[in-house]
Amino acid sequence: MVRLSNYFLPLFGTALFSQGTHAYDYLSHAKSGSDALMHWYNQDTGVFNGTGWWNSAECLTALAEMQAVDPKSDFLDTLHNTFEINKDVMTTKSDFYDDEGWWALLWIKAYDLTHNQLYLDAAEQLFDDMAKGWTTKCNGGIWWDKDKTYVNAIANELFLSVAAHLARRTWDIKYLNWAVKEWKWFEQSGMINENKTINDGLDGSCKNNGYTVWSYNQGVILGGLVELSKASFDDSYIHTAKDIAYAAIYQLTDSNGILHETCEKGCGGDVSQFKGIFMQQISQLYTATSDHGLKQFLEINAQSIWKNDRDSQNRLGLKWSGPFDKADASTHSSALMGLIAAASVQGV
Question: Which residues belong to the signal peptide in this entry (predicted)?
Fold first, then answer.
């Protein structure tokens, strides 16, 4: 079988894979971007001004990723502050299971950084609440929302990813069982289309609804499969992840290899968060595979972000190919994840 990673690489042409990267100090750029993100942080609420609840989890995830790449960073107090302020409302703050998944993954990352058991306990509590969303009318999977109105990709991908992450950190077999069960359902759900990209969700008949191929749906699944591979000692999950990753890169990049959403402006406040999530997960897949094409994809996007989508205060905008328009905590943290992803693989 010819893997998509081998098949699609030549189709990008030379633009994506030939540009030099030696002059770019991704770590320095990521540091500057991380400091700029704090402009939006609200010390009293523990979240970020001008953006939503789940987006704030991703803003904090960017800072946690920065801390992991550069231990000299000083964001652990910020994570702790947010945790202390919001620890009692984590499972009641939102009516959406995917929101809980974002926060669970953040606290798992915080646990990895600090080994503070309270963070891992919070992630387990969030997962337990997510598990209440199983079973849907589609013979498995979890609902997107607690009102049970929609079965979609992102909630189920997050459920898989949180389960697989917890499996590796607790070695409790129940989490591995959940991750395997979720993946078996997801793989057969129809949300992965014939192009090996993932549509938004299922319709009322439990068929692929053909909705937008968003970058974050192509991303979260990668981290989940990487963790599941490690937890189960099964490399087949990595092969599947690479197929999805390259199919998404092929479909969602322009002729210069820069990542775009099908719809970027005027698509709602959530869309501006998506691309950074894809970049973060691609970096995890690269760490597991050392696939050169994935590294080059990260680098070429980080270069464009810094060169074309940044203002004089190092704030980062929505369109990574440029020109810079305006920035908020969502656009900035998303692009920042791209910088951090490139920094995390530099020299690796």
Answer: 1-23
